[in-house]
Amino acid sequence: MNKASKKAVCILSGGMDSTLASYIAKKEGYEIIAVHFNYGQRTEKKELQAFRNICNDLQIKEKYEIDIPFFTQIGASALTDNSIDIPINGIEEGVPITYVPFRNGIFLSIASAIAEKEEANALFIGVVEEDSSGYPDCTDEFISKMTNAINQGTKESTKIEIKTPLVHLMKDEIVKKSLELNVPLEHTWSCYQEEESACGVCDSCRLRLNGFEKANSKDPIKYKE
Questions:
Q1: Number of domains in the chain
Q2: Residue 133: which residues within 8 A CB-CB, separation 6 or more?
Q3: What is the DSSP string of 82-144?
Q4: Which pLDDT belongs to residue 89?
Q5: Is 191 one of the annotated binding-site residues?
Q6: Tell me: the pLDDT tens digits for 94-132?
């Protein structure tokens, strides 16, 4: 297969993990089709801006911005229901309140439809099992079963491999790998609740800051004092 025909759909939230996964896809010689989801998350505008900046950095020509309004209808997550507070006291036990029901399953299903249409060979998603906040849709086993279901439910000629290059990395390894590949981390956004300056206290900010600290590096984004 020549390089030009090697296509990958990259689910790109604008966060550090999905951005690194997209840079890895580029390094592996894939032509990237970027997919971003606006699903009523608190930092929707900031994440969309991050996605667009990263698409420019990667010189991506083909991109999709998909609206999924129903997550706010069902609520059940602090990310999509403003009546539920974002936890700021450290990582919770079990599945945290920031978990959005079956989000990655839904994202992968939509991205697979796009991959089938675009005749892409791979689908990149920046899930992290070891260092994630305990989300059930970020595990190797889940991705493996989704791959089987997707290939079972698409055309015979459609063969999609779901690639999770970060699944076994810790956050400091993600920071180091990002720096090694010159990923523009200043364009990424991880905060669950703020769009101007990152809060620094939500689970996602804590994981990110801890990763930079362990990697002996300074996070280039702005945080509240």
A1: 1
A2: 91, 92, 96, 98, 99, 203, 204, 207
A3: TTSPPP-SSPPSSS-TTPPTTHHHHHHHHHHHHHHHHT-SEEE----STTSSS-GGGSHHHHH
A4: 86
A5: yes
A6: 899 999 999 999 999 999 999 999 999 999 999 998 766
Q: Is 199 annotated as a binding residue?
A: yes
Question: Is there a binding annotation on residue 205?
Answer: yes
Per the annotation, does 198 bind a ligand? no
Does residue 225 sit within a domain?
no
Residue 94 pLDDT = 87
pLDDT for residue 130: 75
Give the span between the Cα atoms of 9 and 49, in whole angstroms: 19
The domain spanning residue 56 has which CATH number?
3.40.50.620
Work out the number of other CB atoms within 10 angstroms of the CB of residue 83.
Answer: 6
91 pLDDT exceeds 70? no
Confirm or deny that 16 is annotated as ligand binding.
yes
In a domain, 222, yes or no: no
| Domain encompassing residue 136 | 3-214
Q: Is 133 annotated as a binding residue?
A: no
Residue 219 lies in a domain: no
Is 14 annotated to bind ligand?
yes
The reply to whether 55 sits in an annotated binding site is: no
How far apart CA 55 and CA 10 sit, in angstroms, is: 11
The answer as to whether 121 is a domain residue is yes
Could you tell me which residue, 6 or 94, shows the higher pLDDT?
6
